[in-house]
């Protein structure tokens, strides 16, 4: 999946960091692709340590749903990733709706990137407010807003507060760089709504995990943030 890194080396890095389970995702953009089959090849090496997440091109809804179904039924994937910035399609665009219906059918969550994109593409499709209509239309769909939502962090927090089925995930942000309003939310009403993530290889899990201890979370809050919230959302069996 990543040039120069083997699955064995990745598992070794997980062991060194104290990471029990990692979720690997495909990537579909016009300029770059990591196929779902590439992800599945890694997952097959360590199915007890790795979980796959499907990524599809939403611009052809029938093909997208077929690929999601194949990823779930044949590859054993347990979630879907959609990337609004990659196609200029906000999260509430109706092209996604057949995918959301399929996720509800399978009982799997959908993860999306909220906030700006580092790529030189318009950031507006990543506004967290676009989760609002989908959360209302699909109350049984679990929605995870990845990347915290910066610079619209308050908007993302509002979505997680309003909707029981909306969560926030922190990939691509080091804990020391979490927005203060997010840290306050994590320490308080968001203790059950926030999931730790790294966006490896861009952020090293070991370093990020060391910084979590600086957030001032309770023992129970840290355990939920690092473990039990994600286990509940993604159906991960904990030892």
TrEMBL record:
Where the record annotates domain Amidohydrolase-related, the positions are 35-236
Q: Answer yes or no on keyword Lyase.
A: yes
Q: Which SUPFAM superfamilies match?
A: Metallo-dependent hydrolases
Per its record, what are the GO molecular function terms?
carboxy-lyase activity; hydrolase activity
What are the alphabetically sorted keywords of the record? Lyase
Q: Which Pfam families match?
A: Amidohydro_2
Looking up CDD domains in the UniProt record yields: metallo-dependent_hydrolases
The name this protein goes by in its record: Unannotated protein
Please name the source species. freshwater metagenome
